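Write out a record, fold above all:
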Amino acid sequence: MVAPSHSIFRAAGIAASRSGRVGLRAVASGSNGGIRGLRTIGRFLLLAALLCLGPWPACAVTLDSSVAVTDPDTLQALERGGRSISRLLGPALGLTREVDNRGLFSVRALTPVRNAVKQEIADEPAGSPDPYVAAMAKTKDPSQKFNPNYIDDDGSTLDLTGVVNRMDRGYLGHTECGEIRLIYRFHYSVAEKPAKGKTAQRISSRLPLTMSLVFNAKPGEARARASRDRPSATAVSCADVANRWLAAGQKDLPPDQLAAWLRSDEGPLSNAMLNSSQIMRLELNMQVLRLSASSRRDFGGHAEYLLKIFKWDPATSTFQESKMENQIDRKIVLADRPAFAKWLLTDRNIYDLDRGRLVIDDKFLATSAVSVAPGGMSRSQNNIAYGLLDDSDINKALQDYVARGNALYSVKSVAGFNLRLNEMTCTGCHQTHGIAGFHYTGADPASEPRRNAVFVPGSAVFFADLPRRRAIVEDFAAGGHPDFSRGFAARPDAKYAEALKDTDLYNGWGSICYSGEDASFKDWSCGEGLRCAGVHASAIHPGFGTCVSEGGTQVGDPVEFGEIKMSKWGSDQYCRLSPATAKACAIDPARDKKPVIKLAGYGAARQRYDNPEQKTGGFPGGMLRKASCDKLPDEASCGRLAKTGFNDCIASGKDHKFCTKEFTKTAGLRACDKAHPCREDYICTAGYDDLAEAKPGKGTCIPPYFIFQFRVDGHPRSWVQDVSEE
């Protein structure tokens, strides 16, 4: 692709300098300014993706549309400058020094978090509705579960991977200005116990666990309590908060200087604007177990993700397990379905559900949730509200709502009501075009080996929602009253289509689409040259698919298509329809067929059924690839792909570096960046420095469990315990 000219930089609101630094100029503020500014955001995302997302960032743009800090170098500088989780929690917890995870989780305020997480890890396999996971529990094999010993190890830390402005949550009763979230990833560093005659190796990696520290965005609203870092005057308006974030988008600074400005008295992350007196809760999302492709062959693997919330209790100065926002407790509701229907099917709640602002009453909510992958919203366990309401009752409530003169914004059918209700739950949201079980993982710094590095920090849903969030920040900045309405998580509201032009985030390749006639989704078509394909078709949400190339000839296109059948809620089976394997959804190795690839020089990465002893697969829907990195098409870049023996190598406990060297091959893979994300159930990994054909500023799409840090299995199970020196 030709490098953008300076005139294009100006048109997109991006200023370039000869030093390679790029700064996003602020767009017009106010209610109308927010809409005008939306047109620049799509171009910004595209240009930022092309210019600032290489393994070593070539420029200093680190703020996504003034609503997030995602650049790894800036985030590391913020941590060094006082935004580590222990420094932020310290004053509220009575800590007087920087502590590691062991010290942090042993303090009284956080012991409820540690104990609850360890108990959930122990309980989850036996409590899972999935029969494969239940069977795993009977073996008492811990190798496929998150190792709880990492939580207490002194070599473990929590790395800051993102700062996200969520002023769009200002419609909630507990905060008029919304929230600010600091997102941390779990990281360990351990010395393995040496085998006889061998030298112990120190192994370091992130693990699939994020912890978000959530702050009230308005300091003046924070509940007063003893805090060493609490400023004497914190009375600020929502406009003050918003304008600081917009000002941050104008800064043309290298990472260290930008981090310093963000923490300065003028910045949005100063001590006056973000301190321990504003802490509201901790939000946990972690992969608790993973079945390999060889043990869960129909789906090509299976992973379960634990979600929990711990609210800060100022009376006891502890974080306590709490009800999760909108996460329906199936057992509670099934015990009294009429009570739930009576509460939900009112005009007030239909209005809020339609506009994406519903807050479900605590009496119907759970304190814990588990989402599953792959398969996204087609999996029954990710549809927590499935079967809790009668469709006839929903239909009557919607008809009566309209008959009383009310208008419907997004939810225009029973199917729309069901999808909206499910995706507003924690499980439904996290498994709507997410990265495995996450919407935000953070990108890895240049120091992380490329074989284990994430390139794009957030999911397609995360980046597609930025124009809406930016418009709300601008309205706040102008002193207005923002419109907090939002479209479906699976497809941004049509009014933001222009803002997302020139990206794949609206109706581009990999987007969620719909091919039926339902009024709620009939406009969810694919862009030019694309078609809607049923990779994981489901009776729960019929007609949904993924936008892929019309002829199925682009690198990254799926090559296997099927449906997910549910025997009961939480127990699903994937049935491949093309290429077919056997009747009645069975796996018949003798009838396993390779996808037909008619393009010379192309091949198919797929889930193999023909050889049970060959531990390969793990490609949901399969993936078209170039057999080599020669003459790559525009949509491809050169990367590495696991080959037969990779999973066996990892399972044997060998070093990930060795397994990557011995059991991967180069291939032309789907190129990706923030504006052009991967398909659902794939992740954008960093480009390899040693591959000349790898395109600068691009990552490559592969299944997430091929990255060491996105699987709980294969990591050291025992090591020399690190001990803090007092």
